[in-house]
């Protein structure tokens, strides 16, 4: 469900913060905005997964993750699964830039949510306020302000996999990796989904992305493993290894140590949510 709110002015002055659009349990379609929007936008992924590209930086958005978009930032987002469902709010006003800077929301991009219920509940509150009184702009703005204040303590920016210039063949290959990294995925499988030969894909991928297909697949698995180690501190490492596409726990530990500088167990003991920035 999406609600678009009409702007309200007080005399000649716009409200310092006003909500312009709300989305709740919205099955997200593909959006491509070369010039961005005039709004700030916060999204939270309730189900499924999607791909976000911001200024040529590509990120995958999964459950318990979301993303922030600043005004006039080039962006594209599209579903990677049929059930990609999001909640979101779009807002603007003269106080927004200063407020977001003070709250540490400096960058457009993907974020991890340590308390998913908080975002969902605040969006639901704004929907209830709107349904009760569609003219209660002050109440909805106050609820959005509460959302931003609380959200600042519940988010951490997620690292992105890489930056590259768009290419449809490479896009298809990366989409295959993002959707199937948990499988025993081969170069042949990825090339087949991209619709080209193995040799052509490997050459084009390295030229476009600056790394090999195999390295990109490995880093994708490591990034998702790091996230699971932090999200699910009691989950067996062997299960995480399997879920992230590694052939065994020992193989996972070896690759993880090479890329992260420590074993998965040590990383889990010493890391915290802020380490997702690194």
UniProtKB/TrEMBL annotation:
Keyword DNA-binding: yes
Domain of life of the source: Bacteria
Domain HTH araC/xylS-type: 171-270
Keyword Cytoplasm annotated: no
One Pfam family from the record: AraC_binding
Gene Ontology MF terms in the entry: DNA-binding transcription factor activity; sequence-specific DNA binding
Alphabetical keyword list: DNA-binding, Transcription, Transcription regulation
SMART domains to which the protein is assigned, alphabetical: HTH_ARAC
Protein name: AraC family transcriptional regulator
Organism: Bifidobacterium pullorum subsp. saeculare DSM 6531 = LMG 14934
